[in-house]
Structure formats: structure tokens, C-alpha cells
Amino acid sequence: MQKFFLLFFLTQLNSLVSAAELHIELHTQDNQAMPNAVIYLTPTKALSPSTPHSVAIMDQIDRQFSPHILVVQKDSQIRFPNSDSIKHHVYSFSPAKTFELQLYRGLDANPLLFSKTGIVELGCNIHDWMLGYVLVVDTPYFAKTNRQGQTQFDLVEGEYRLNIWHPRIKANSKNLEQIIVVNGDTSLHFQLDQALLPDVNQYEAVPADVNDYE
Amino acid sequence: MALIFLSLLTLIVLVTVLFVWRATYNHSTEQLQSHVRTSASVVAEKISNTASVLRSNLIILAKDFSIKQLIATAADDKKSLYSAMENFQARSLADIFWVLDADYVPLVSSQDNSVMDENALSELRQSGLHWYQHGGQFYLLEAVALKFVESSVQNNAWLIMGIRADRLFDQKLVSLTDMQISVYHPDTATILTSTFAPQLATELGSHTIVIAPTLHELTLADENYIYGSSQLGRWGESPVYTLLATQETKAYLSTQSLIEQLVIILSVAGVLALISAIVMSRTITRPLEDLIAIARKISLGKYVQQFPQSNTKEVVTLTAAINDMQNGIIEREKEINHLAFFDELTGLPNRIQFHQHITRSIEQNIAAKLIVLTMDVDRFKEINDTISHEKGDHLLQMIAQRLKTYTGTKAFFARLGGDEFGIIIEALNEEGRKADPEAIAQAVVALFEQPFAVDGLNLDIDVSIGLAVYPEHAINEQGLLQCADIAMYSCKDQHYRYALYQPELNKHSVMRLSLMSELKGALVAGQLQLYYQPKLAIADNKITTAECLIRWIHPQHGFIAPDDFIPLAEQTGAIRHVTHWALNTACMQLKNWQSQNITLSLAVNISAMDLVDMQLPAYIAKLLSKYDLAADLLTLEVTESAVMGNPENALKALHTLRSMGVILSIDDFGTGFSSMAQLKKMPVHELKIDKAFVLDLANNKDDQIMVKTLVSLAQNLSLQTVAEGVEDLATLEFLQSINCTKAQGYYLSKALPAAQFETWYHNFHRVEA
Hints:
heterodimer, A: mainly beta, Immunoglobulin-like, five-stranded mixed β-sheet, four-stranded antiparallel β-sheet, 17 strands, globular, B: Alpha-Beta Plaits, ten-stranded mixed β-sheet, 26 strands, about 20% strand, rod-shaped, transmembrane helix (chain B), membrane (chain B), HAMP_dom (chain B), EAL_sf (chain B), Nucleotide_cyclase (chain B)
């Protein structure tokens, strides 16, 4: 993972003339830090196509998807290993990727290619409580907010379409998609205008200092 | 009595029935309410269970991976989804289904052209039961969200399934609740479904249905129903109610049968009570009524022999008490009767009974002859005074005994009071009719021939008896007694032992009685006058004296002779007033004549009673002094019998008068039975020879001898003589020849009023002179 990000980072540095640091802070409607929200930035100008190389992992640990939310760039491969001692039957009826991995164990399942952008909702046919998301985005610039609802990007200055997503953020909330211009180091602060959807299985109750993406 | 009892009983029955009916009605109503509540719960439970089962099935279905797959691929293959849903609908015993996608667009449905909008769905998603109308049918719907991933926050599809309402409310539920169940939507006044027969259900829909916690009534096909309501889910946003109805007759069946039984029981009790009342009435009330009737009879004086028989102790006691009371009354009545109708002294019936006996005898024997005697003991007062009242009473008792010894025709004796007795002879038979009243009177008189021995004294008793005969003399008791009394008094006057009533007696006596009552008034009114008859002093041929004679000129009867009222006035005592009046008038006249130089003395008649009354001398003295007259101008003429009645007092009075200088004369001399000894004692100045000897003196030798003897006797006793009834000259000459002092009579003049007398007087003296 670190390797992937490091590589990615270096690539950006190399390709851009001037880089800027974008700092984003996200708060909920009731002014709490909003962790684990996916923020992704899509340059408005076409980018040189870049294909992800590595295979993303959506593990199943203790009868839960891990991570709960996985963000990948379009055309990424995702492997669904099974770290539990029991079988799982992972599936998705989401239009972005409909698939079914019938009862398997360990690394029996082959990685799957996610070639459409969108949200892929993952479930296990034999464990109703299991829920996971794969967000397929058409940009390399994406991150999840930490416990303080913060995240930061090193970007080439320019215009971006900024998207905020989280399964608990209502789709009709304002400013989930907006155009920003990054010119020099920038700090942006967003506050949600609507309450979050209920936290069904407390997927967010992750340890305080763990950041899946770091 | 029985009627009151019956009404009271009816009232009690009615009140009881009313109260019981109300209580049981209320109880039944409560039970019915409770039944409705329970039934509503049962119905709600059953429907909820059905809905719940359907929902559970839907939830399971929503989690079915195959269904999820079919829905996810529905865009390409609706038929498979429809088929699967059909299969599941059959499994769930449902009648209708929809599958909607996340945007509520129907994917598949059992119904063609079915539209299930978002609002309807959002209603369905709320808890509770939901009713839905589709294609003219009502359904109980359940909707469940389907999520491709169960734990997702997002719904991916909707599964909706419904059961036809009429299938839910079947006869099983009716028999379970014992009620007819209908589902009603008040907002649209729609009957969603009903267990009633279709036409009744339709009729029910046309009624105004009251949704309230209490029970209500309505009529379906002429039958009364009681119904209650209870909410059961909703249709859209408005509530739907179950109506639980039962026939009123069925609901209150127990009440009615209870009331019927109660009425029967009370009726029987009433009849029994009535019977006992009648029995009671027979044993107590009726005898009591009989006793009341008896008591009334007793109060009217009718005595009762027959008392009602009864076995009731109280009645028997009361009967005995009333019997005792009646006996007591009879006893006392007898005593009172005796006291009232018998004379205590003699034991003879009294006057009251005597009267009644006459009345009864007349009433009972209207054709019979009845002789009534009243009997008076002569001089009883004197006897009583002489021998004491005690002995007088004894004598009366003995007289009563003596009367009882009468053996003639059947007689009834009574003491009428004092010395008066009454006898009734009932001449009933033919023999009796012939009975001679005088013979009977003689027989009674004969009873008194023997003297009575009272305490060693032998008393000769004379009686006066008056007789009256029914129906000859009077036809009633009062008349008979009056007649007998009149007869009795007449015989007393005439000194007969008995007298039979004669109508003349009555006439006379009635007038006499009436005159007596008028006499006093007549004195005051000046109806009485003094007439003056001259007395000739024969030797001098001069009028020296006149006799005052009383004349009563009655305004109705005209002239009334002194003989008609003086004796009566003597009997009644009125004579005193008459005498006083006469004396006063005479003195006034004397004074008057003195002033006219008419020198006369006047003679006034004095009765026996006046002599006995010792006031007479004092009265005369008063008069003499009042008119300033010499005493010898007044002559008092006294009859022999007047002196004989009470010689002691009479003589005393006469002596007093003589000492006063008043001239005293013995009137009617020769008719009495005065003894010579008596005459010698009399302090009189003259004898007045009765006219009986004088009237025929001129012709009758015997009278001549008698008068000559009397005059000679008087001369020997130094008494002057007056002859009255001188009616001719021969008589006067004879009287002159034998030296009679004075003459009085029609030959000289009849009695004249004062004025005429004066004329006559002057005339006489002028002629003589």
C-alpha cells in the first residue's frame, strides 16, 4: 500500500510544474469532525491516462468487509481474500459492478476488474450484516478523512471537480460536488447541510489512530 | 280490601320486575359490551396475525438471494420475477402483489395497470394494518423493503402483497365471536367487507353508523341489531373500524328469559298471596265486618242473639267482648228502664210508663175500649202534714198495695206523682166492651172502704176519681188524661167520689184554665169592675150599705160571672190579687162617695185564702189610713166554709179585723154545716142569710120558719141579719115583720156600676123622702 502511494506521489511531482498543498476539513451538520468520508478530485482538464497497476484488496475479517470503504481508480483490480475460517458469499447487484463470488475460502477467488465508475455495494449472502463499499472513481486524487475529518492532497495547481462521498451522507446534500481552483497551498472547509444517515452497524467504530490509507 | 291488597301486590311485582329488568338489562349490556370488546380483540388479533405472517413471509422473501437476483436483473427478465412472485403469492395465500424498484416504479404486479404511488407506499410502510382498494376489492396490504445488501442504508426494491378483505372475515370468525363482523371506513362511509349476507351488508352501508365506545342499535331487514366498533388499521390516512353486530333478541335473550321466569314466579306468588288474603278475609275480615254490623245494631238498641262463628282467636275474643258489652248494656238498660218507668216509692209504674201504656194500648188495640182513671187522695196534704211525710209515704205505699188487690177487669196501675194514681182498664173482649166505667170506679172506691192502719193510726181515706173512655172522650193519651183529670177535678169540686168525663166539663174547664192565665193581666188592664148592690136598712127604709160584686168584662168572652172565675181563682191563689184589688177599689169608691155626701158603707167578699193569709189585716189597715176612712165603713163578708178550712188562722184574722173596727159578716149562712158552737166563737157582727131561703120566702112556709128562726137566733146572739135574694115586696114585708136588719136583692136593685148606683141611690132617697 505505502509503496503504491509513494510511487503515485512521485509520479505527480514529476509531471507537474508547480505543486500545491490542498488541506480539506469536513464537518457534519452538527459541527462534528466527519471521518472516513471519501474526497476525490477530478481535474477538469483531461489528464494523461494512467492505469493503476496494483491490485486493491477488500478483505473479509471477522465477518466484516475490511476496509468498510474502498476507493479505487477505474480499471483497478480488486481481490477479495477471505481471512476468516469460514466461507463467504460476496456479491454485488450494483450497476457499477455486478458480481458474485460464491462460497469460497482464503484466496480461492480471483481478483475482479472494476471498469465502471460508481458505487459498488458489497454484501455476503450468508452474513446479512456484512456491508462494504467500493467506490470506483475516474481520478487518481482521492482520500478519506481522518478522525479529525481532515485530509490533504499535494496537487498541481489548477481547476478540479471535488466530490465528497460517504454512505451515510445523503445523496441530496449540497456541495457534494463542486469545482475548486487550487492555486498555491489551499485550505478548504466543508460542512454538511444535512444530518447523516443512521450508522447501521457501526462500521465507523474503527480504532482512533488507524488510518487505512496511510 | 282484597283490591287494595291486589293493587299493592301488582305494584310490588311491577317494581320488582322493573328493577330486575333494569339490573339484568344493564348487566346484559355490560356483558355485551365486554363481548364486543373481546370479539374486537379476537378479530384484531386474527387479522394482525394474518398480516404479521404475511409480513414475515415478505421479509424472508426480501432476503432471498434469488429474488434479489431476479429483481436486479428484472430489466432484462421480468417474466422470471413475475413467475417467482406468483409462486410466492400462492405460498403466502395472498391475493395480490407488487414489486417496485427503488424509485417506486412497478417492476412486476399481479394486477394489470396497477399504480402504487410513493404516498400510498409511505403509508403502507407505517406500522399497523393497512387496507387498500384496488379494482373494486379491498385488501389487507403488507409492504417490505428489499435491500440487495441487507445492511445497506438504501432500499433497492419493494415487495407488496395483499389478502382480500372478504377472505379474512369468514364464517369461522363469525362462529368464534358469535357476531357479524363488518369493516367500515367512516370517511367514505364505505363497508369494506362484511360477514352479513350481501343485501344486509348493502343495507348496513346505507345506515348512519356511529363510531363510539358505547353500543348502538340499528335495524337490518326488520331485525334490531346491537353493534360496537373498534379501530382496525387504516385506509390511506384515515382509520378503519370493525363493526361487531349481534341481534338484539339474541343479546338480551337471557334478560328476557329471566324476566319471563320472574313474572311467572311473581304471578304465582301473587296468586298465592291473593288466596291467603281471601282466606284471611274469610277468617278475620268477614267476621270483623259481621261484628261491626252487630255493634251498629247494638248502638241502635237492637239486641243480637246470633254472633258470627270463627276459629280465629282474636275474632273469638272480640266476639266474646262484644257479647259481654251487649249483656252489660241490657243489664244497665233494665236498671235505667226501671228507674225511668217505675215509681221508686211504691214500685208501681210511673207517669211516663202510664202515658206509654195508654199510647201502646191504643196503638195495639185500636178497636178496643180503654178506660182511664186518675185518682187523687183527698186532703192528702193535710194528712201528710199531720202524720209526717214518712208516714205519708208509707200510706202511699199502702194505697199502692190496696190498688193491687183490685180483682176486676185487667187493670194497669201507676203512681202519677204525689197523691195521684192512674189506672188503665183495657176492655179488650166483648165482655170488656160492656164494662161500665162507673162500676169500675165504684169497685175502686170500694177498695178504700177499709181504713188504713199507719203506725197504729186508723186513717179513713177518701179518693176522687176521674174517668175518661177511649175512644168516646178522646182518641189519644194526652186527651184521655186531660179528660180524666177534668173529671177528677170536677168531682172534687162537687164532693163526689168519682165522675165520668162530660164534654161540657171540658169546655168549661178549658175556658176556666185560660181565664186564670188572663186574670192577672185583666186586673191591670182594668177589665174587672166593681158593681154595687144596695142593702136596705129595713127599719129605717134607708140604703146604708152596698155589696161590692166583681164583674169581669172580657174583651172576647164578654161578661163573665163571678161563679165562673172566683172559685178557680181561689184554687190557684189568684184570689188574693182579686181581693186586694176589690178592697182598694171599694175604699177608693168610699172616699169618692164621702166627698159626694153619699153616706154608705161597702161590703167586700173575702175568700178563705184571704183569711189564712195573715197579711189581710195589715193591708186593710194600710188602705183605711191611705183613704182616711173609718173602719166601720168596711164590711168583710166571709163564707162559713172559708172559716172552716183553717178555723184557727181564720179566727185569728177575724179577731184582728174586728178589733180594728171592721164589720164582719158571715156570707151564705145556712148552706154550710157550721156548728152552733163554732158560730158562737166567730167574732162577727152579722149573718147573711143565703138566698136559697129567701128567694121563695113569700110563698114557702118552711123557708119562713127557717128565716124567722135564723133571725131570732141572730138576735139572741146579738148579731144583725141580712137577707139576700129579696125579689118582691111580700118578702121585704115579711122580713120587716120578723125584724130582719137588712135586705138585699133585685126588688131593690141588681148590682150597678158606680155611676148608675149613684143615680139609683139619689133616686131612691128622693122617692122615699
